[in-house]
Amino acid sequence: MAARVLDRDRFAKCRALMERGATPGERAAGRAAATRVAAAAGLTLAAALALAEAGRSEAAPPAPGRDRPRRPAERTYAWAEPRPAPEPVTVEELRRQKAAEDARRKRAAARARKRPQPPDPAWEQWSGEVREAQAARDRDWTRRRRPESD
Fold first, then answer.
1. What is the Cα–Cα distance from 27 to 16, expressed in whole angstroms?
2. Taking the alpha carbons of 55, 56, 61, 64 in that order, is the dihedral positive or negative?
């Protein structure tokens, strides 16, 4: 029977999920997948892990410059620098903001009161008709409530 070969790329992905999964379920699924990949090569999980570790150390020396930053420190971009912590809002600041908002609302209300509202002729006609109809209903109700002998 031909010797089966460990699919190193697939095993590396499963191992990464097994070791760095976000949830216990992801880590368990990664472990199960790594076990299946190792079994397909005729290995146990421990043997495949040992083989991957040996291959990792022999494969290639670390890339030059891996330890140093990609850009010199003096050439950082503004978006790459951490933002400073925001200053906490004080009670005095909250009171000042509330007073400013109240003053703004008062000024807006005063402007609205000063603005004359022109009457809408259609509204005035409709409301007059409604008042007349209500007055007629009131007179009718009063007549029905009053005894006939008066």
1. 9
2. positive
- pLDDT tens string 87-139: 999 999 999 999 999 999 999 999 999 988 888 999 999 999 999 999 999 99
Question: Across the chain, which distance is largest between two alpha carbons, in Å?
Answer: 124
Ranges of each domain in the chain? 8-59, 89-118, 121-150
What pLDDT score does 2 carry? 44
User: In whole angstroms, what separates CA 32 from the centre of its chain?
Assistant: 33
DSSP conformational letter for 133: H
Q: Using alpha carbons only, what angle is made at residue 29 by residues 54 and 12, rounded to the nearest 5 degrees? A: 25
Q: Which string of DSSP letters, residue by residue, matches 32-65?
A: HHHHHHHHHTT--HHHHHHHHHHHHHHH-PPPTT
Q: What is the dihedral of CA 61, 65, 68, 72, to 10 degrees?
A: -170
